[in-house]
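Our working data are protein records whose layout never changes between entries. Instead of coordinates, the fold is spelled out as a row of discrete tokens. Here is such a record, shown just as it appears in the course material:
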Amino acid sequence: MARISNNRKGIGRKTFAILVDGETEKWYLDKLRTHENPIGITIKPDLPNKKTLLEQFEAVKLNATIYDVSVWIVDLDVIILEKQENNFNNYLNEISGNTLFLNCVHILVNAPSLEFWFLQHVKDTGKYYSDCAAVIADLRRHHPLKDYSKSEKYFIRSNPDIYKRLRPHLFDAMTFAKKRGNYNPHAPQRGVAELYKLFDLLGIVVN
């Protein structure tokens, strides 16, 4: 759960609480924050420390009462593995049906995983991959991700780091990801990379 700080909703810099379900997402967001440093925005990427899906959802709703914008980034392969599809779809319906949350809570789905967002940087594809490993195998066929590794060393300590490595291809990623469309609860077996929406929320101009 995001920490409560001296920042108060609606006062000073606009605050974003971003809840993620894995270390790779947090490493990527940390580097996004470092390199883009959105003006007038404070980003607080947060790892849920093994919280259940329901506990994450409750944290997202709580964050919406503390921060200006509450974002939840989820990997669909984890939800499918844990057989939580129905529960997750119910959470989506709860947010969309509540006017208090409609404009301040954003749930972004990557299907199957964050790596599908990375793949959009180098390949225009809507192929459905059953799991993260299948995406990684395809990632490694493309420069600059031939040595891709889900490790802190690769994401943070390599030169260039993960964000700088992909930044020159970000316009393509945004274009291709938008073509994939939104997550459809009635057709979950589709490649989706909704992380592109975060750049629009943060006001980051990509060209």
The first strand starts at residue 14 and ends at 20. The chain is about 45% helix and 15% strand. Residues 156 and 162 are 7 Å apart (CA to CA). Residues 23-36 form the longest helix (14 residues).
